[in-house]
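Expect sequence, tokenised fold; for instance:
***
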Amino acid sequence: MMQFTVEHTPANIVKIFPKASDLFKEHRIDFCCGGNRPLKETFVEKDLDEKLILSKLNTSFETWNKEDHEVVDWDSKPLSELVDHIRHHHHAYLMEELPALGQFVTKIFRKHGPNHPHLMDLYRIYSKFSMEMEEHTMKEENDVFPLIKEYEANPSKDLLEKIREANGELEDEHNEVGELLKLMRDITNDFQPPANTCGSYQITYARLAEMEENTFQHIHLENNVLFAKL
């Protein structure tokens, strides 16, 4: 069985071993927007324990390999199939979850804001994140994804250049929303609600953590698979 080393990138590790994303989030290791840098660079930059993290990663991978898991090799899938997967599993989730979760964020801010001042920052950051993701998703579905499907059916150099230019803008937007997610994780203490908080408070933090996971996987598929294939 292969062993991951400091030369591997987080993006490629997550392609092989999706559950590695949990460990990377725990140690604030970027596997989506900046996921193409070798681990050794992140270890040095963040002053992380290289041996400890690699040991956890490879031990977890060994255990996971003994279980029955089906991993989709998205690198081998047609562009249209990958685009449809992103639309149905990530865009659809966001369009349903963003407004619903926004109501919870607003509710706990109004109820608990006086005693928990960080909730004002959470409210502001979430509102910005929600607006940007809605606009970003519509741009992909209305403009970029149709171009990708057109290119798959009738490839041309001009069309590819047009897609690459659009993808560059999308990657910049990914970086921006990635930073907003990191800010939300910071101000919520890794989405851990304070002791003795109400059910709404706890649900809000749990759903924020779930949305972060979904969005990171979404960005990972676009940056490191879809855009890379183009």
Residues 77-229 form one domain. The chain has two domains: 10-65, 77-229. The chain has a mean pLDDT of 91. The first helix runs from residue 10 to 16.
